[in-house]
Amino acid sequence: HAQSRCPNQLAKTIVYVLYAAQHFNTCVQSLSAVPGQPTSTRHWSFSIQRRFYSTVPVKSVMKPVTVLGSGKKIPKGPRTKQPSRTNQPTPKEDKCIAYATADQYHLPTLCHDLIAHGFYEVDLPRDASNALVICTDNAQKPSDNATMFFFREGSVVFWNVEEKTMKKVMRLLERHEIHPYEVALVHWENEEINYTIGEGNSKLQRGNFLLNSEIDPDEAVLDKFAFSNALSLSVKLAIWEVALDDFVESIQSIPEMLKSGNKIKLSRAEVMQKIGELFSLRHCINLSSDLLITPDFYWDRENLEMLYDKTCQFLNINRRVKVVNEKLQHCTELTDLMRNHLSEKHSLRLEWMIVILITIEVLFEVGRMIF
Asked: Which residue range or ranges hold the DUF155 domain (predicted)?
């Protein structure tokens, strides 16, 4: 009974397979009977479809990554929440623009030079000795005085100064700069904010400055000084950000060389130079500037401190300083790795020299014993 049931099971299995092959064309291309054979002894032939792989490359769905070489850099996005650089002043608004042109200014000689060319100085409180305030009659609009703030740290802020006078001052400024920056970098890394004069307390409103029209000129200069101080820090930080980006670009091949097992193509002197550049930049950002703390000038002037803090917050200075310090920390670890690698390489060279000297001495002793 079991033997008679096996052929039936086998026949059912063959029928199921043939039925599945007819309905799934991915496996079976054709299922046909061989002609010339009787139905009872008919043989089935299967033609299996082959899968061929094309040699033509398939276009990837992912976008290609552009690798920047030594060519022109792509400009970065705006640093502020509302990019003031794109805000053109309306007829009721005046323009305030800040530049960082050098590491430092020599303010005493700059003051004498500007006064000799028809400008006049405005006095500031004694505890604001790091700044120089100069005024001129060549205002861009008659609604406000033309005022310029020069900070010893190498930045200048123009308030309502016409373009011709601004270019003249920039040319005079070149004589008193210490370690000036590139002209293209100076004009790209700037901060420009519009301002108006109206009723109410001075404040930062919707990305623009609002100056109180009811205060006396001396207090108005101090309000402008607080705004200008924050702007000067922002443009100075922008210059340091570019310097850090250039430094990162100069050492970006080191991790790949270490990853691939290649030798570092830097001498000990070049590594020490890189370490010096890194610590110099770190010193400028964290020690010789007011990026981490509020200047002493604002300790007993709460209204000016509020203007200064609000402007720094708008320009994202604290967040940018944090990002810069994180990059500096990573670069410091990388330079330490390079220095340790070169030290180990130097130590290994000395060890081999000692081994060779000992080997030579042993050979001399052996030769003397033999001969």
From this structure: 148-325
